[in-house]
Amino acid sequence: MSKKLAGYGLLCSIILLLTLLICVGTGPVSLPIGQIARILLRQIPILGQGISIDWSPSSEQIVLNVRLPRIVLGMLVGASLALAGAAFQGVLRNPLADPFTLGVSSGSSLGAAVLIFFGWQYSLIGALTLPAVAFFSGVITLWIVLWLAKEKGKIPTESLILSGVVMQSFLGAVVAFLTAMSKKTINEILYWTLGSLSLRGWSYTAILFPYVIVGLVVLWSYARRLNLLALGEREASHSGLDVERTKFIVLVVATLLTATAVSVSGVIGFVGLVVPHMIRMVTGPDYRLIVPLSAICGGIFMMWSDLAARMVLAPTEIPLGIITAFLGAPFFAYLLCRNKKQRMGVNS
Amino acid sequence: MNKPPISPSSAIQLSHLNKVYGTQKVLCDLNIHIQSGEFVGIIGPNGSGKTTLLHLISGAVTPSEGEVHIMEQPLSSYSRKALSQQLAVLQQDGIPAISFPVHEVIRMGRYPFLDWLGRDRYAEVEELITLIMDRLELHALAERPVSELSGGQRQRVALGKVMAQQPAVLLLDEPTTYLDIRYQIQFMELVSRWQQEEGLTVIAVMHDLNLASLFCSRLLVLHEQNIVADGSPHDILTEEMVERVFGVQASATPHPDSGVPQILLKRKEEGK
After folding, report:
1. Where do the domains of chain B lie, and which CATH numbers do they carry?
2. Do B112 and A235 touch (CB under 8 A)?
3. Distance from CA of A102 to the nearest CA of B (A)
4. Chain A residues with CB inside 8 Å of B57's CB?
5. Do B112 and A240 touch (CB under 8 A)?
6. I want to staple A168 with a disulfide (CB 3.0 to 4.6 A). Which of A103, A252, B227, B249 is the partner?
7. Which class in CATH covers the domain with range A73-338?
8. Per-10-residue mean pLDDT for chain A, 348 residues long?
9. Which of B64, B66, B73 lies closest to B14 in space, CA to CA?
10. Which residues, in sequence order, are CB contacts of A250 under 8 Å at separation 6+?
11. Where are the bilayer-spanning segments (chain A) (predicted)?
12. Binding-face residues of B in 11-70 toward A, CB within 8 A
């Protein structure tokens, strides 16, 4: 197990690094990868002193203050969403679960849409108002979904998904209503609900970073418990797992990850669905591998998606949520078909 | 697997146990005492509360009134993990069709004994797993995903998982329901051998009266929310009992090998 993890982990980390360099190098001004690597290495204290500066100050500006913040943010958003997706799939034991099945992202987007509608995005605590409010409305949504799903102190899987879907359609309708009512600001809400990473400085990265690290550590430490849950709740409980507590903690952590990701980048769908499944296909069902690799590969997936969003119709930018939906929705359909086939295979 | 034999003591004690679902009484004032090392079969017609009784003992369902003691401690005083160190449950449907390989599923039985870093409290755990795989002839299947196994193989994996749990008490909920006769007898022999070697206490809900008679040292008959008979298969499996509890005409005949009673069903007489 640990050998497998080291192997896959190394491979994915190398791909992550290469992706990062390629994405930083690609844009209206294209920069050679070697130069980017040297600019980045130069930033490391002490070690970087040995590297002589052979690039123009504008290149350094583009790398450090224009492209890198956006790309690192994309990496973190991707990692959060993929981690959350893996966690939801593990707890719900539903291969089609995704941060969005629970309605959390819709909850976050409603909070943001309300702010934009009334023009309050910069009130209270300045630029941080939008993420903070989106985060709280996401958490409240989770709380309502859990409350709706609760039966005699337990949360049955089916009713959790049902209440998630109900909340999602209701909140989606409210956001659509606000979009329709708003005259001047229509584009801003719409753009936000479709997801974007543009014009986000380092401050957003700083908000997201601790959540990703804490989320990764907690979920990874719960990986063995998620494995046990695959046996079914009753069987897992007979094996010594405190099922309700495990479900509660994993759901809360996954929701925090989703809400913070959505609050900085808007609604970006399907990442939490596609990435953990790709990993599952390669490594098998063990969450001790799926959790850490989801974080890395979620970052890779998001960087490539954002590169496509920036470059395909350049200089026009496509909303990121559209790119991930183009990739993710067919994948969802494929999973649905495979599931159907498997069920029929079992019955026959 | 070389624990010293446990001296006879109280493994399970149920006192004045009531279970009510809504307005429906399922079990009423149940008092049962089971000693360590007993192989107890619970029999009774459908809907007599057999599975509820098992759930009450395993802690999956809480009693409306009364108390359950496991190894002389109240059930409510155990944490989930501590309870699983004493008591294992093998369900009717065993293990779902997951893609974990067989050896991983068997290892999952060790969960109650892991510390927070995932290290096993018991140093010779690898030997234990190997021994279990030997005993259940699972080595050839070790790397196969559970979802690819047949029902009989899957039930063997489920047994391997509870064996890895090394419990003092094993609860079986109609474990042979989905197995053909070959796997039924194989499964019961494996449980029986384990029970004898380890001094394990086994409580099994059984549908098959003849299988129960072959393997259990004591039978409890559950009928109309209570225990109506309690004793050795010889005393319990009589024509009168089968008629009274199941409403079926039967003839009891001694087994040619061991002399334990076997129940033969009778058809309705002509013209009735």
Report:
1. 10-98+168-265 (3.40.50.300)
2. no
3. 24
4. none
5. yes
6. A103
7. mainly alpha
8. 88 94 85 84 77 80 85 93 93 78 83 82 69 81 86 71 86 86 68 72 83 94 94 91 91 86 83 90 91 96 92 84 86 77 55
9. B66
10. A87, A90, A91, A219, A222, A225, A226
11. 6-33, 71-88, 100-120, 127-148, 160-181, 202-223, 248-275, 318-337
12. 58, 60
